[in-house]
Amino acid sequence: MDKDLLILRINQVVRSIEASSGLADLDMTARSILSFIGEAEVESRILNVSDVVKESGVGVAPTVYSRLAELEKAGWIICIPDKRDGRAKVVQLTPLARRTYAEMSKEALNLIGSPRA
């Protein structure tokens, strides 16, 4: 398959999964924050709320705090007490978020690995 067509097909699959999972209902800031948290998990980094505010680069503190609250309410992330610092909260993806990202990865890999689509 030609590279441009492959990219188009992967984008179509990702958008379809985003729509069916509810991920498409999130604004770009919330989706960027969710991706930032997911990347940290892939790298086995523990993030607390203040790390997301300082390091994600997606907006000012009030915006990031608001989006984190929305993501938690929608079931995409969970904030739990940080065992290292009782005042802080660790941010993690929920099983829903992990399944959604895993499904996107699986479908993209299937397209890349398939001889023809």
CATH fold-type name: Arc Repressor Mutant, subunit A
Level-1 CATH class name: Mainly Alpha
What's the CATH superfamily, by name? Winged helix-like DNA-binding domain superfamily/Winged helix DNA-binding domain
Largest sheet, if any?
A: 3 strands, antiparallel
**Estimated helix fraction:** 55-70%
Order of helices and strands: HHEHHEEH
Could you give the count of β-strands?
3
| C-alpha Rg (nearest Å) | 16 Å
Integer tally of domains: 1
Shape: elongated
Flag low-confidence runs.
Answer: none
SSE inventory with pairings:
Blueprint lengths: L2 H19 L6 H15 L4 E2 H7 L5 H13 L3 E6 L2 E9 L1 H19 L4
Antiparallel strand pairs: 1-3, 2-3
Helix pairs in contact: 1-5, 2-4, 3-4
Could you characterize what this model shows?
With 117 residues, this protein is an alpha+beta fold. The chain has one domain: Arc Repressor Mutant, subunit A, CATH 1.10.10. 62% of the residues lie in helices and 15% in strands. It has helices at 3-21, 28-42, 49-55, 61-73, 95-113, and strands at 47-48, 77-82, 85-93. The protein has a 3-stranded antiparallel sheet. α1 (3-21) runs antiparallel to α5. The model has no long low-confidence stretch (mean pLDDT 91).
Please tag this protein with its features.
alpha+beta; Arc Repressor Mutant, subunit A; 3-stranded antiparallel β-sheet; 5 helices
